[in-house]
Structures are given as structure tokens and as C-alpha cells.
Design brief:
There is one protein chain. By secondary structure, the protein is of the alpha/beta class. The protein has three domains: about 10-175, Rossmann fold (3-Layer(aba) Sandwich), CATH 3.40.50; about 180-215; about 220-340, Four Helix Bundle (Hemerythrin (Met), subunit A) (Up-down Bundle), CATH 1.20.120. About 50% of the residues lie in helices and about 5% in strands. It is built from 15 helices and five strands. The protein has a five-stranded parallel sheet. The longest helix has 26 residues, at about 260-285.
Length: about 350
């Protein structure tokens, strides 16, 4: 029995792959592009299940969900499906995951695995999550695989922005654009996952999630919600002090514990809240109606807001580069304050 794809919000992309398989024009390499947390990896895994399913044809592209292949894909144990992702404690995708460590170069790793013949069927599939974190050496190693993909192979790179990949990689991949989920679609997913108890709660979480499942789930935490409110309120006030806010931010960051990944994620949360705030300032200044959930909006100039957004993006990248968090926080907030010092805040 064939089962429909359990994917919400990406019907157009499903139909694109259906047409490609029906016409037997499925490419070997795809670049899945879109905001974080909207289901790109889930889509890639569902696509892999459909292509590896033993009970359906490639043309049908509907996995049965019950054969040995489908069950292995669901368990992350299929011998012909290889998923590579950045470890939480690393700032970049380790080269060893692609070509093996120094003692086993091209004897282990993704590129080696993809060079082998399929063990359970006629196709091998690689999913490279967190492709944003490929360094130049890793991208060049991967390029050799993309230039001469093994027969019947499928390679999917998942990224938030196409321009974060080398031009040589972009030129060898078909781009598949994914959009943010609507509030209704995200609310439906949150209810299905049991994250929200009712439709009202699901919609409230979806609005904060801004189309991202990951963001909506992170904002369930009451401490994180309070930090979001603190950032929005503080940035709307005239004469706010960077040092005082930095202390508050670091208390929130350090309460995540001693492990670096959750601490970095909390600082990234805070930066996202400031980014969200200044984006809404631009939205309102354009003449659009103020979003219902926004209670404080600055009267800063558009140029000030753009400068603050740029500082937020820079700080976000520095978090991923393992910068010292207290020093980065002080620098980032001082940049925001300097950019808006002469602006009147409502």
C-alpha cells in the first residue's frame, strides 16, 4: 500500500520531483534552499524513502512506509542513505565526515561511501545537512564528487542561502527553493507533533515561530519568551545601556549550563530577537500596519535599522565561529546602541 508524503507546506516541490521522475529526468545533485527549520531535511529524507522504497516504482514516487527499505530509512539505518550534519560542538562541518581522517583518507567518509556500489538496491543517496558550514577545503572535496557523480546517485545539499555555496557547487546543482510555512501550516505541524494542545496555542506559537518549526519549538521555553520580551522592550527605550543589557543577556545564556552548544544557541536566540525587532521597525516605517504582537516599535531611521540588522547578522556569524560569548555580546550591543543613539525611541 502506497502512502502519501507526510509533508505540509511544500506541495509544489513534491510535484516538481514527481514530474522529474515521470519524465525520467531526475538530476543527480540538488541544492535545497530556504530558511532554517521549515522542513527541508524532512523533505529530503522523504524523497530518499520514496526513491529507495522496494514496493513502489521510481515513477510513482510514493513510499509504502512498511517495506524493509522504508523502515530502515525511518530508523536512519539504510545502507544506501548517508546523512551528514554538523556536530553540535563544531563550528564547521568536519572534513573527516566527507573524506575520512588523516589515517583513512578516502577510505571512510561520505565521498568514499558514495563511490561504492549500492548494497540494497540500484541507488545511493547522500543528504548533506548544514551545508552552510562547509569550509573551502570541504567544499572542494565535495566538488570532486559532484563533478563525477556515481551512476544512479542522488546528492542533496541543504542550505539557507544559495550564495553560501561555492559558485562551482551551485553550477552543478539544481536549485529547489523552499518558502517559510504559513502560520496555519506551522500550527498544523505543531499540533501533529503534540507540541501544542489546541489550535489557539498552536497559532500563537506559529506566529512567534515566523514559519520555522525549530524556532517555534525553541520559543516554548518561558525563560526564552521573557528574554524576547526584554529585548523588544529595551531596544524601544531611549537611553538604554548596552552594559546593563549585556549582563541580562549573559545571565540568560549562562543559565543554559556549562555545555557550549546550548549557550551559543541562547545567544543566537537573543540576536534573532533583536533582528526581528529591527525588521519590524522597517516594516512599520514602510507604512504597513503594525503587527498585532508588536507593542514597542522604534522611530529610528531606516538607515539606523539597516545598520542594526547588519550588526545582528555579523554577531550571528561570530557565534558560529566560536567567538568569546561575553565579549561578542558587549560588542554587538554597543554597535546597536551606537547606531540608534541619536534616534528618538517611542
Amino acid at each position: 500500500m502506497l502512502m502519501p508524503w507526510n509533508i505540509i507546506g511544500h506541495d509544489r516541490q513534491i510535484e516538481r520531483f514527481r514530474r522529474a521522475t515521470e519524465n525520467r529526468r531526475l538530476a543527480s545533485t540538488f541544492l535545497f534552499v530556504g530558511p532554517a527549520g521549515i522542513g527541508k531535511r524532512t523533505f529530503a529524507q522523504q524523497l530518499a524513502a520514496a526513491l529507495l522504497c522496494q514496493a513502489t516504482t521510481t515513477v510513482a514516487l510514493d513510499p509504502c512506509g512498511g517495506c524493509a527499505s522504508c523502515l530502515q530509512v525511518a530508523a536512519g539505518a539504510h545502507p544506501d542513505l548517508h546523512l551528514v550534519a554538523k556536530p553540535p560542538d563544531k563550528s564547521m562541518l568536519p572534513l573527516e565526515l566527507l573524506i575520512g581522517d588523516r589515517e583513512h583518507r578516502m577510505k571512510t567518509g561520505l565521498c568514499y561511501q558514495m563511490s561504492l556500489k549500492p548494497r540494497a538496491g540500484k541507488r545511493k543517496i547522500a543528504i548533506i545537512d548544514d551545508a552552510d558550514y562547509l569550509n573551502a577545503e570541504g567544499a572542494n572535496c565535495l566538488l570532486k564528487l559532484l563533478e563525477e557523480p556515481p551512476p544512479g546517485s542522488l546528492i542533496v545539499l541543504i542550505t539557507t542561502h544559495a550564495n553560501r555555496q561555492l559558485p562551482t557547487i551551485r553550477s552543478r546543482a539544481q536549485l529547489v527553493q523552499f518558502q517559510r510555512l504559513t502560520n496555519e501550516q506551522l500550527a498544523q505541524i505543531l499540533k501533529q507533533q503534540g507540541v501544542a494542545d489546541n489550535q489557539e496555542e498552536a497559532l500563537a506559537m506559529a506566529r512567534m515561530g515566523q514559519g520555522s518549526i525549530d524556532r517555534a519549538q525553541r520559543l516554548r521555553d518561558e525563560e526564552t519568551q521573557r528574554m524576547r520580551s526584554t529585548i523588544h522592550t529595551t531596544l524601544s527605550q531611549q537611553g538604554w545601556q548596552p552594559q546593563a543589557l549585556a549582563e541580562t543577556v549573559m545571565e540568560y545564556v549562562e543559565s543554559a549550563g556549562k555545555d557550549a552548544p546550548p549557550r551559543r544557541q541562547r545567544l543566537k536566540n537573543t540576536i534573532e530577537f533583536a533582528l526581528e525587532y529591527y525588521q519590524k521597525c522597517l516594516y512599520v516605517s514602510s507604512g504597513a500596519p503594525q503587527p498585532a504582537e508588536t507593542t514597542h516599535v522604534a522611530n529610528a531611521t531606516d538607515a539606523d535599522c539597516v545598520q542594526c540588522i547588519d550588526s545582528c547578522l555579523q554577531a550571528y556569524r561570530h557565534v558560529d565561529a566560536n567567538a568569546n560569548l561575553p565579549t561578542l555580546t558587549e560588542w554587538w550591543l554597543s554597535q546597536l546602541r551606537a547606531a540608534t543613539r541619536t534616534s528618538h525611541i517611542l
